[in-house]
Amino acid sequence: xxxxxxxxxxGAPDLITVRGLALIRRCGLVLYAGSLVPAEVVSEAxxxxxxxxxxxxxxxxxxDLMVEADRQGLDVARVHSGDPSLYxxxxxxxxxxxxxxxxxxVTPGVPAYAAAAAMLRAELTLPGVSQTVILTRTxxxxxxxxxxEDLAALGAARATLAIHLSVNNxxxxxxxxxxxxxxxxxxxxxxxxxxxxxxxxxxxxxxxRDKVKAKGWTRTALILVGRVLEARAFDDSRLxxxxxxxxxxPKA
Length: 252
Known about the structure:
With 252 residues, the protein is of the alpha/beta class. It is built from eight helices and ten strands. The protein has helices at residues 18-24, 39-42, 59-72, 91-100, 112-120, 151-155, 170-181, 208-215; strands at residues 3-7, 29-32, 50-53, 76-80, 104-107, 133-137, 160-164, 186-191, 199-204, 221-225. A five-stranded parallel sheet has the order 3-2-4-1-5, with helices on both faces.
């Protein structure tokens, strides 16, 4: 048997990968993060499968369920939201499974920042504007941030920022970034991206907090910051430029 860590994507049931859905359809135990993974995804579990919402469970309990499934010879779908490599808390589970000698694999999923960019019809890397995307978060009640990864230090690069798990920290986010990006820098807060009630607020570092506060959003939101969010005057990429030659488009 195998534990399959599966990224369910940002919310829309049809944004899970073909591989991820196929695995769910054949696993005897499905463990899923019920607050973030749509019910339609886990409803694809086979008849007779045990489906368990892990939102209220501890790590010990989750691992115990995996161990019991292993004893019974059942494959397990461990379904996480988004892509499990980012704030997925899978490393601690895999460490336990390594110690127990239980096999596992990982199936990636569509990350929230990609879904947010799609909703906004935005490219997060533009020639001459930003060629770097920094994925980060701030500390509220979750684990502390490493000392060298404070937002002000990351903002010094003036790259495009995708800030997770931080909508309750918007005032602090703005204060940390204004010295580097300017108060007029575009900022977007994307809420429940790809779900039926998805929404977004656009503004600047100067006013985004007040706009989001008026919406009352306190969770399931992603903050995007950067000049790419407003840029219209940027160079075309070299990829398709007539004068750019490569092995697939030799010089005439």
